[in-house]
Amino acid sequence: MADKTTEKALQSIENEDEFEEFEIEDWDESQEDPANGQLWEQDWDDDNVDEDFAQKLRAELAKSSS
Fold it and tell me: Would you say the pTM of this structure is higher than 0.90?
């Protein structure tokens, strides 16, 4: 009895690893929308320590540590 329960549990776990496959679309640049050429800022991951938030955070941390 335990073997059937274990087998069902293993099948359930194995099925979770399956992903839906999608066809690969071959796009050339003529099919792309030029209005969507840049959808994010190029420097989104740059650390800017001069930001207002960083300055306020440092001030609050300095207050709380005193």
Answer: no
